[in-house]
Write a sequence for this structure.
C-alpha cells in the first residue's frame, strides 16, 4: 500500500534510484544484507532455517512471507497505518477523498441503470476509513443509491478486520477472505493501494541472459543470490529495453488477483488506485527496480532486513494489470491520475465560507489535505484505472465525460 510522506512521495523515488543502484549485483554473486547485525526475530529465524533446509527462495516467496505470514507477517500482525504509524494513505487525510470517490461510485450506479440493490465491495480496506467515508457521502448526496448498497470488504487480516469493524460499527457489512466468496457481484469493486502489496519476482538482465533474484543466507544473514528464473515463463516478462544489470519486477500474483475479481463480477465496474505506471513509464527508471521497504515514513536501508517488521512494496506495472484484466473479460473504461480524477469529481468545488476563526482553521486544514491528495509529485500522481464487465464503458465523469444526466443536480 502506498503512502504520503513515505512511499507515495516522489522524493522517496529520487532516494530510491540511488538506493537501488547501490544494490545492483554482479551475476552469480550473493550480497549480504547491509544491516551489520544478522536478522532477528522469530520470522527472520524461520526464514533462515527454511533456506538452510530447502535452499534459496525467490524474492516473491520472501515478500509473501514477510507481509502475510500468519504468525509474524507485517500485514497480519504489525501493520501500523496513519500519521503515527508507518505510512499514510489518501483516506487518512480526511473525508474529502471518500466523498469524491462516492460521487464517482454514484455515477457508476447511474450507468448501471440505478439498480434497487447492488454490491459495493472494497478489497483491502485498511482501517475501514475509506468505506466509512464513502458510505457516509453516498447517504448524504445520493440517498437512493445508498439505500440499495450492499457493502462488503475483502480482507485476509483478522487484525485489519477488527479495525474495520470499529470504523464501520453499526453498519450491515459482509467480510470475505477472497472475492469469489461474494460472487456473484453486481455493482462496484474498488481497491485503494492494494496491488503494490502483492509479491513480486525480481528479474535482472545479465551477460548470461535473464536471471532472477533469490534470497539465501550467509552465516545467518539474508543475502541476494542470482539464479536462472524459477519458472521458464518469467524470462519473457522482462522488457527487452531493460539494460544489462537492470532490474524489473513482475507480479503474477497481482495479475491473478485482478482476474479473480473479474471472475467474481457478473456486471459492473472495478476501480483500482495505486502508485506505479505503465511499462514505458517504469522503464524511465533506467531499470533500477522499485522494491523498497518502509517503516515510520522512511525507507529501510535493506528490504531483506528484519522481515515482518516493516512494509515491502513495488510500483505497479499497469500495463501487465490491464493485460490481465482484459484477458479475464474486463474492458478498460478509463485511466488517469488521482489528481485528474479527483478534480473531475469536484473535490475543489466551493463550500460555505467559514464564518468563525475555528471554522476558518478547519477550512484551512481541509484545503491542505486536498492539496496533498492532488500533489502532482505525490498522491496526485497515483494511477486510477476503471474496468467494466457487462456494463457501459462510456460516460464516466471521473475520466472527463459530462455528468450522467440524472446526476446533474448532485455534487
Amino acid at each position: 500500500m502506498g503512502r504520503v510522506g513515505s512511499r507515495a512521495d516522489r522524493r522517496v523515488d529520487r532516494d530510491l534510484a540511488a538506493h537501488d543502484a547501490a544494490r545492483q549485483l554482479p551475476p552469480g554473486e550473493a550480497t549480504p544484507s547491509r544491516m551489520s547485525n544478522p536478522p532477528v526475530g522469530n520470522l527472520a529465524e524461520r526464514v533462515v532455517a527454511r533456506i538452510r533446509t530447502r535452499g534459496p527462495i525467490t524474492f516473491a516467496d520472501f515478500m509473501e512471507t514477510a507481509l502475510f505470514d500468519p504468525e509474524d507477517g507485517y500485514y497480519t500482525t504489525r501493520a501500523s497505518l496513519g500519521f503515527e504509524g508507518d505510512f499514510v494513505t489518501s483516506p487518512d487525510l480526511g473525508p474529502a477523498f471518500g466523498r469524491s470517490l462516492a460521487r464517482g461510485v454514484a455515477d457508476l450506479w447511474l450507468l448501471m441503470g440505478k439498480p434497487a440493490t447492488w454490491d459495493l465491495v472494497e478489497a483491502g480496506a485498511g482501517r475501514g476509513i475509506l468505506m466509512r467515508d464513502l458510505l457516509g457521502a453516498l447517504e448524504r448526496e445520493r440517498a437512493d443509491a445508498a439505500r440499495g448498497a450492499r457493502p462488503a470488504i475483502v480482507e485476509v487480516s483478522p487484525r485489519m478486520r477488527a479495525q474495520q469493524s470499529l470504523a464501520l460499527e453499526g453498519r450491515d457489512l459482509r467480510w470475505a477472505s477472497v472475492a469469489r466468496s461474494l460472487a456473484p457481484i453486481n455493482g462496484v469493486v474498488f481497491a485503494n493501494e492494494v496491488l503494490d502489496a502483492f509479491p513480486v519476482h525480481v528479474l535482472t538482465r545479465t551477460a548470461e541472459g535473464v536471471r532472477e533474484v533469490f534470497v539465501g543466507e550467509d552465516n545467518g544473514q539474508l543475502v541476494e543470490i542470482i539464479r536462472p528464473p524459477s519458472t521458464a515463463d518469467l524470462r519473457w516478462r522482462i522488457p527487452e529495453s531493460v539494460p544489462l544489470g537492470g532490474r524489473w519486477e513482475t507480479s503474477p500474483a497481482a495479475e491473478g488477483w485482478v482476474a479473480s475479481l473479474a471472475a467474481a463480477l457478473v456486471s459492473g465496474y472495478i476501480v483500482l488506485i495505486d502508485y506505479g505506471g505503465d511499462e514505458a513509464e517504469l522503464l524511465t527508471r533506467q531499470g533500477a527496480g522499485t522494491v523498497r521497504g518502509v517503516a515510520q515514513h522512511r525507507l529501510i536501508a535493506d528490504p531483506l532486513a528484519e522481515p515482518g517488521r516493516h512494509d515491502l512494496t513495488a510500483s505497479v506495472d499497469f500495463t501487465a494489470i490491464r493485460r490481465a484484466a482484459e484477458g479475464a473479460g474486463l474492458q478498460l473504461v478509463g485511466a488517469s491520475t488521482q489528481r485528474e480524477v479527483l478534480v473531475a469529481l469536484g473535490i475543489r468545488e466551493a463550500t460555505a465560507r467559514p464564518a468563525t476563526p475555528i471554522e476558518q482553521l478547519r477550512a484551512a486544514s481541509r484545503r491542505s489535505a486536498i492539496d496533498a491528495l492532488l500533489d502532482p509529485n505525490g498522491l496526485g500522481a497515483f494511477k486510477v484505472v476503471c474496468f467494466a464487465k457487462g456494463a457501459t464503458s462510456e460516460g464516466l465523469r471521473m475520466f472527463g465525460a459530462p455528468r450522467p444526466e440524472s446526476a446533474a443536480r448532485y455534487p
Residues 241 and 281 are 12 Å apart (CA to CA). The longest strand covers residues 209-218.
